[in-house]
Design a protein that fits this description.
about 220 residues, alpha/beta, Rossmann fold, about 10% strand
Length: about 220
């Protein structure tokens, strides 16, 4: 199910954004088709990809100043700039929206995001903002489905021994994209070799059995 994932170091702000998104989805009759999750930012920015994948996220909504925390207590040692850079390095087209109390500053620093909103504008204009998130999320969801379908097609070619070197390279590339753990594909050539050996043995056995059946029939 497509998921809108929300990251904010302040619990109250995080809960407010979540509540507004959920209520707007209900108003749009989209609550059944969409999931919403929220959390504190991961301890290290490199962990954000794992967090997104763990929650099947198709859209990220993030605060900008993630290193403030409640009562000015630092929660992480990075701002959204570094988190976004980490995502863009691995997922160039992933939809990212920023909601912040420092909109003008954020716009001066952040360029590679879908949009930036002040907290006030987001709450006031949620009926316009959330549909933007849904459209971006659907594009992402459709993109993922297409890639997974292609991955399945390539895996089937590999399984029956009909894949080319180009097919194998493409499959490995898609594995890396989804951070999939498919150890049988890593040792692909060895698996296919064993498959061919087993197939030859089975064919030889079948031929011997058939010859024996023919001999019995002739004896009768």
């Amino acid at each position: 199910m497509p998921t809108i994932a929300i990251l904010d170091d302040r619990k109250d702000d995080r809960e407010t954004i979540t509540r507004v998104v959920v209520s707007t989805l209900k108003k749009m009759n989209e609550s059944v088709g969409w999931n919403v999750v929220s959390d504190e930012p991961p301890a290290k920015e490199r962990d954000v990809i794992h967090w997104l994948d763990e929650n099947d996220a198709t859209v990220l909504v993030s605060d900008w100043k993630l290193n403030e925390g409640a009562k000015s207590q630092r929660v992480v040692n990075y701002e959204a700039d570094r988190l976004i850079k980490e995502i863009r390095a691995k997922r160039p087209t992933f939809p990212i929206f920023v909601i912040t109390g420092f909109e003008s500053e954020a716009r001066a620093h952040l360029k590679d995001v879908e949009n930036i909103f002040s907290r006030k504008d987001f709450t006031k204009n949620a009926d316009d903002v959330v549909p933007q998130m849904i459209r971006a999320g659907r594009r992402r969801y459709d993109e993922q489905r297409a890639l997974l379908t292609r991955m399945d097609s390539l895996a089937r070619l590999v399984a029956v021994g009909r894949s080319s070197a180009k097919n194998k390279a493409e499959l490995r590339s898609l594995q890396g994209y989804f951070q999939a753990e498919l150890p049988t594909i890593i040792s692909l050539d060895g698996v296919l070799t064993e498959f061919e050996k087993t197939k030859k043995k089975a064919d030889a056995l079948r031929q011997r059995v058939q010859r024996r059946i023919n001999q019995v029939k002739k004896a009768k």
